[in-house]
Design a protein that fits this description.
The protein is α/β, with parallel strands linked by helices. It is 34% helix and 26% strand. The protein has twelve helices and 18 strands. The chain has a seven-stranded mixed β-sheet, sandwiched between helices. Strands 7-2-1-11-18-17 form a six-stranded mixed β-sheet, with helices on both faces. A three-stranded antiparallel β-sheet has the order 8-9-10.
Length: 391
C-alpha cells in the first residue's frame, strides 16, 4: 500500500468515521483535535438510507442504539405558552437518531485503540513536496505524513491552510444560531419540544434523553457578522443583545446560557467549492461541503463521504490523485441534492410580518395535508441520490 501514513484534522464525527475505515484497510492513522477532549453536547442528528447502510457495514448500529433518541412532538407556542400548532412525534427524525456528542464518543471508542489521537493541538502549517507533507502543529511538533485530510468542520483549519480564506467558499444563509444544555425546568418529556417565534427570531427547548436535561436553541436572522468564532463570551453577548426584552421563557433561558457546559454558536452557512482536494490534501464533511443544519443531512454526508474516501484510497492502492477524483465524482450528486434542501432557510426565521403570519398558518394546517409526507420524504429522496458501492 502506498501513502499509508495519514493525518486527519478533526475528531467530531467525520474524522473518526474515516479513521475507522482507514484502520480496517491497513493505513496508519493519526487524528488531531483542537479541543482537549471529544466535544460534548450538540443537537440531535439522524440517519437515512445509505448512511444507515454504512453504519451497518461498520457493525456499530447496536452501540449507537444504546444512546438512541427519537424526536417527540413539536409544539408551536405563543408568549403565554399556549399551543398554536404541533407536529407529530418523530416528524424530524430519520431511521436512527442520536445526539451529536454521543455519536462522537461512539466513534472515538471504536477507533482509539487503532488510531493515534492527539488532543489540545492543531495544524498551523502544511508544506507539501514530492514525497509527502511536512506538518507543523501549534505545540511546536513537526511531523511528516503522506496525506492530510481536513475533517474539521465549517471553519476548517486545513481548508484555510491549503485552499485560502474561508470567505471564498462560505455562503451565508442569513441565520445565526446557538445551542446549549439547560436544566429541564419546563418538565418536558419523551423528547418533546417547544418553539416560540417572533419577527426574525426563534427559540426552542427540547427535552433530552431520560428527561433529566433539556437543550435550548436560539436562532436569529442577520446579514453576515464579523466575529471571532472562538470567542464564546462575545457570542453570548450577541445572543443577549438580540433577545433582550423577548417574552416567553427567553429570560430564564438566557440565564441558563451563562453557565452552559456546551454552548455552541455559529452561522447557518454552506461551503461550496469547485474541488475538495489539492495535491495531497483533501476535505471531508462540513469542511468541504457543509450543507448547513437546515438540510438535516450533514452527518449522513460525513459518514457516507468517509466510507467512500477510505474505500477509494484502498482500491487505488494509495494513489491519492485517482482516489480523490473518484471520491469527488461519487459524492458530488449527493452534496448538490443535500445543499438544495436548505434553500428557503429564511422561512425558518421570517423577517417580515407577512411571512411570519404565513408560517404560522402553514404550521397549523401542515399535519393535515399531503405536504407533511412531502417534507418527511424530501431528506430520504436526497439521501438516495447516492448508492455507495462495496469496497
Amino acid at each position: 500500500m502506498n501513502n499509508k501514513k495519514i493525518l486527519i484534522s478533526g475528531a467530531s464525527v467525520a474524522g473518526p468515521a474515516l479513521a475507522f475505515w482507514l484502520n480496517r484497510y491497513g493505513f496508519e492513522v493519526t487524528v488531531v483535535e483542537r479541543a482537549p477532549v471529544i466535544r460534548p453536547g450538540g443537537y440531535a442528528i439522524d440517519f437515512r438510507g445509505p448512511a444507515m447502510q454504512v453504519l451497518e457495514k461498520m457493525r456499530i448500529v447496536e452501540a449507537i442504539k444504546k444512546f438512541e433518541t427519537r424526536a417527540g412532538k413539536i409544539t408551536i407556542v405563543n408568549k403565554n405558552n399556549k399551543k398554536m400548532a404541533s407536529m407529530p412525534d418523530g416528524f424530524t427524525s430519520g431511521e436512527l437518531e442520536i445526539m451529536r456528542g454521543d455519536l462522537a464518543n461512539v466513534f472515538y471508542e471504536a477507533t482509539n485503540g487503532d488510531a493515534e489521537y492527539i488532543f489540545d493541538d492543531s495544524i498551523v502549517r502544511l508544506a507539501e513536496d514530492a514525497a509527502g507533507v511536512e506538518v507543523t502543529f501549534s505545540s511546536g511538533t513537526v511531523r511528516r505524513f503522506d496525506l492530510v485530510i481536513g475533517a474539521d468542520g465549517l471553519h476548517s483549519n486545513v481548508r484555510s491552510l491549503a485552499f485560502g480564506d474561508e470567505a471564498k467558499f462560505m455562503h451565508h444563509l442569513g441565520i445565526y444560531f446557538a445551542i446549549f444544555t439547560t436544566p429541564n425546568f419546563m418538565e418536558l418529556q419523551d423528547m418533546a419540544g417547544l418553539y416560540y417565534g417572533t419577527l426574525g427570531k426563534r427559540v426552542g427547548v427540547f427535552s433530552a434523553k431520560e428527561d433529566t436535561k433539556a437543550r435550548a436553541s436560539f436562532y436569529f436572522a442577520s446579514p453576515q457578522i464579523s466575529y471571532d468564532y472562538r470567542d464564546i463570551n462575545r457570542q453570548k453577548e450577541m445572543i443577549h443583545a438580540r433577545f433582550a426584552g423577548e417574552q416567553w421563557q427567553v429570560p430564564q433561558l438566557l440565564g441558563y446560557m451563562e453557565n452552559a457546559p456546551d454552548f455552541y454558536f455559529d452561522s447557518v452557512s454552506q461551503i461550496r467549492m469547485d474541488r475538495w482536494s489539492k495535491g495531497r490534501v483533501v476535505l471531508l464533511g462540513d469542511a468541504g461541503y457543509c450543507a448547513s443544519p437546515m438540510s438535516g443531512m450533514g452527518t449522513s454526508m460525513a459518514i457516507i463521504g468517509a466510507y467512500i474516501l477510505a474505500g477509494e484510497l484502498k482500491e487505488a492502492n494509495g494513489n491519492y490523485a485517482v482516489a480523490f477524483n473518484r471520491y469527488e465524482q461519487a459524492m458530488r450528486p449527493l452534496v448538490t441534492a443535500c445543499q438544495k434542501l436548505a434553500e428557503g432557510a429564511e422561512w425558518f426565521v421570517p423577517q417580515t410580518r407577512l411571512k411570519l403570519w404565513m408560517r404560522r398558518q402553514i404550521w397549523k394546517i401542515l399535519p393535515y395535508t399531503p405536504w407533511k409526507n412531502m417534507m418527511i420524504d424530501m431528506p430520504m429522496k436526497a439521501a438516495n441520490t447516492i448508492s455507495p458501492k462495496d469496497y
